[in-house]
Each structure stands twice: as C-alpha cells, then as structure tokens.
Amino acid sequence: MKKIDVVHFLLKNLSDVPQRETATAFAPTNIALCKYWGKRNQELNLPVTSSLSVSLNQKGAAVKLKINSRAHDVIFLNDQAVDLNSEFSQKLISFLNLFRAKQKWNVDIEIKSNIPIAAGLASSACGFASLVLALNELFQWNLSSEKLSILARLGSGSASRSIEHGFIEWHAGKEETGMDSYSKKLAAEWPELCVGLCIVNDQQKEISSREAMQRTIETSQLYSAWPEKVSHDLISLKEAIASHDFELLGRTAESNAIAMHATMMDAHPPIIYSSSKTLHMMQKIWELRAEGLSVFFTQDAGPNLKLLFLKKDEEVLKEKFSMMEIIEPFVMPACF
Amino acid sequence: MKKIDVVHFLLKNLSDVPQRETATAFAPTNIALCKYWGKRNQELNLPVTSSLSVSLNQKGAAVKLKINSRAHDVIFLNDQAVDLNSEFSQKLISFLNLFRAKQKWNVDIEIKSNIPIAAGLASSACGFASLVLALNELFQWNLSSEKLSILARLGSGSASRSIEHGFIEWHAGKEETGMDSYSKKLAAEWPELCVGLCIVNDQQKEISSREAMQRTIETSQLYSAWPEKVSHDLISLKEAIASHDFELLGRTAESNAIAMHATMMDAHPPIIYSSSKTLHMMQKIWELRAEGLSVFFTQDAGPNLKLLFLKKDEEVLKEKFSMMEIIEPFVMPACF
What is the ipTM of this complex? Predict the structure, then answer.
C-alpha cells in the first residue's frame, strides 16, 4: 500500500480542491517518554511498538499556506526562502503532492519554527503536524484528530503525536494499511510537570533518526529485547501519569531513552549521538538525584538532553543548568 | 554447593599439605574477544555463556609463595606490603583458606603485576591464575589445565581463562557443580596478531565488574538478547581464528564489546565506563577504518580500549596512538 492510497481512503467523499485561499496552523513538538524506535513499514511509517509523548506547548511550528498563482511552490523557513531542490523542500513538496493528485495548485508555504531544526527536537514532527492541520483548514475536511494523526504520520512517524497538546499515545496498530495506527490524547494533565531543554549542540546531526532507526533494527541483536521493554514501560508511564507518580515517570522515561541509545550503540556500525558534554550532563543529573533532587532526563536521536522535573524544583535546577529553557506542557503560555 | 566442596572434590586423593617451601608461577592476563558477562551462579562464578579470549603473553602477574613461620600471611604487591584488612588481602586470604582446611600454614605472598590494577585489564584474572599455578607447584598436585582453570575460576571468573597462553575458550558448562565449566586452549596461533593497550585512565574504577555484571543481569531488559548474540559471536570468532580472517575477528570482537556496554548502559542505574577520551578514541578508530586501515577495538569494564590489528600496520598505528603499548600474544618476548 502506498501513501497516496491511504490519503484517498481517508479523504473519500471529502473535498479534493482547496476551499480557502489561505490557512494557518500551529502544532507543538513532542518529546517521547517512551520512544518510537523501529518501523514495521517504511513507506507508511508504521511503528513496531506503540509510543507515548508529551507535547511541548508553545514550542513547535506554525505553518501558513497561501494558494499562489505560480507554476511552483515557494517555501520560507523562519523568513528565509528555501531552495526548492533541497532535501527539506523536496520532502515537503512530495508530501503536498499527495493532496493535489486531482487538481494542481501551488502554494506559498511559510514555516516558523521556534525549535532548532534537526537537533533531535522533533522538528519534523511539528512541521508535518502543522502542515496537516493547515491542509485540514485549507480543504475544510473537518477530520478527527485520529485521522489527522494518520495523515501526519505519512510525513514523519512522530508527527502523528503532534496533532494535539498533552500526553499522547501513538497506538502501533496491526493493520497493514495502518488505519489503526494513530495517536490519542490521554485524559490526564499534570500542571506541575516541567521539561527542560538543554541544547548541547544545535548543529544538524550527522545521521538522521530515520537512518539510525533502520540501521538499528537491521543490525542490532539487542533490538530483539526492545519491544518487550516498551510494553513494560508503557504500562509504567500510564500508571505514573494517572497517579502523578513523578519518580515512576522519570525513572521509566530515562530508562527507556537509555535503552534506545543502547540498541543504537549495538548497531553496525555503532551509532553514538552522545557527545562528551552529554555524558557530563548525565553524570551531573545522576549526582543531583543521589543528593535527593528528583530530576530525570530523556534523550532523542541527538546529543541534547531534555530534563524532566516538577515545578517545585524549578529554581534549584535553573541554577544548576543555567542555559536550560523550561517548558511547562500543561500551563497556558502568556504569549503563544 | 560451596567453593570448598569443589576444592575437596578436585583434590580428592591429592596432597593437602604443602610439599615445598616455596613455589613461583606466572600467569598472563587475558583480553576477552567474546566477553564473560553474567553469572548463573555467584558463589562458583559460573557464567551464563561461554567466552573466548586471547592471553597477553608477558603481561600478567607473577606470584611467589613462601611458607612462613608466622601466625598470619604476609602480602606484598609490587614490593609494597599490603594491609591484611584491605579488600585485596581479604580476597586472597579467603581464597587460600580453601586449601588449608586440614592443616593451617601461612605464607609470604609476593605478587608482581606489570599491568595497572583494576583498570579493566583483568588484573584479578592473572592474579588468581598465577596463585593457582603456584599452589599446584607448592602442593605438587600436577593438575590438568582444565582442573586448574576450575580452581582459578573460584577466585575470579575470568581467571579461568588465564591458565594458558594463546586463544582460550571458557566453556560455560551446564552442571550445577561447575565441573564442566572450564577453559581450553584453541589449537590455532596467529603470530601477526597485535593487541594495543591504550590506557586512558589507570585509576581504580568506581564500579567493580562483578557489581556491574550483577546489576546488568538483574535490571537490564536488553540483557535477554545477550546470550543469543554470544553464541553467534563465538561461532564467528572461531571461524575467524581458524581461517586467519582478521576483519571477521576484529568486527566480531568490537561488536561484542559494544553490545556488552550497551547492556550496562541499560542497567538501572545505568553504568557507563566510557569517558570522553574513550569516545574520542573510538571515533578515531572508526575514522581510520573508514580510511582503509584494519583496526578494531575491544573494551572491558573500564574506560581503556584495547586495539586489535595486524603486525603489518604496527608502525602506522604507533604514530596515531603514541601512548599505546603493543603486545604480540603469539611471539615469544625477548625478556619474560
């Protein structure tokens, strides 16, 4: 099954021409507490296991689509025109092509992202999610968030989890079509929860997470133990979220991230995203924890760490990690 | 079953009083190409899987035992008296006690080691192996190397592989008594093989390999995939050794070490022996390999790397790693 078949199935009986001239949407990026690591279908970005994330509130991407009268799209990223032949543009354009099989239209796409691109902060997640939300607006489809998450997944797996705010579970699903592989928001909120972004290095990473994931699943022998670990971790995380058990949340998220990096290290050739700065920061976190501070980390396909802690410890941690940017996923920001 | 029962069983009908006044022995340390990682029996140091090592020729420990007329043992390590209450002495003394249940005798023990103690260079391996070899001499037991390797294992698991020079396979065995868990030398030699010791840090490590192993087996979920990986790696290594396929040897040994560290990283709390120097050295090795140089590494429970390469590349590698000490496991050293 191809992406285009999924799109046709989902949009059956819905408008296939834009209903508006412009559309705007924002989608938050998300940090997985239980990682999406390994695909059972590369074309449709169907995962081996379910995963669970928390959306990062005001951190994400805003997209504005505006139908233009040119023979091609125009793409701006943070007010800079992007070369249409770049990999970035080609991904966007081929995604948009899924929605203009019938009628050819072109758009000016303005993307504003307030997170570093490709630094392991899921920039493609919020990028594709915001694009799908904007298309939903442009075409006036009025799709459910489950269906929007399926469309976003076709752009980038983790984009499936960026359609909504809050704690999000992406159900792996079993069907070959992936129609049961979508994200759902958990009911629980956690206003005291803080995520601290520690940017060790915001340079473009050398190995994409897509490539790292594929190499791991193909060559790591330890990966065989990953799905079982994920099912345990998902149960622990949902229990932690339901009962606001922060120790359980932090411990599980940290252990899940470390296990993911362990499977990468076991790939051939090995993949190590951590730099010596990353290692030092981990040591510092473990020392603080040994001193009684309840702080944990998670790490994605890059050297940056994301700290997990509660609001009551914010001031202490700000002192320890002066460069850290703090997000409160469940607190409405003063200015969006 | 207790250690003492194994000793009684093995030494049945053999002398239980020293036959000489003094005895001296040397045992080489060994570097595992397929690691011993996880015990199925803590008391007897019985391993979950088989393992395979190469002995490091003149690098190891020499022991001299001399019956004394005191009421206690005396221990010298590299010409320095060692506190009898130290952990080091207590381990030695309780090991010796296994052999003086019947008659109480005391010894001066002089140990000379030419490798850094507890820096992930298997100092306890050659220590206990040389002690067992010296006891074999002192009591005139004339035991087979298989039986000596069983006795050495009671002191430290990897000591089982230090009774002989060359490539050594330690068979995990299945019996509860461990009588089938001993080491055997492989017939093959490989005179061109070089091992380069790169000492990043020769300080005493914070977490003993015994503790790291136990924590991993008890808490790492990825560890469940380790035994299967080991059986594949053992087959590859024996094939590589038999056919002198250096690429296969190096690739397998490196991958085995990385996987072991990956399981440790997945333990709770995580164990990371690599320092930033270790990471930089790994990167350097991978770069050299990308440039066509056939060099690999292995890493034990410490930050130091051991390089694997062939004699023909020695000069180039000496330039790249100026601090490296080179061992040729199959070439008789000029001065032992």
Answer: 0.70
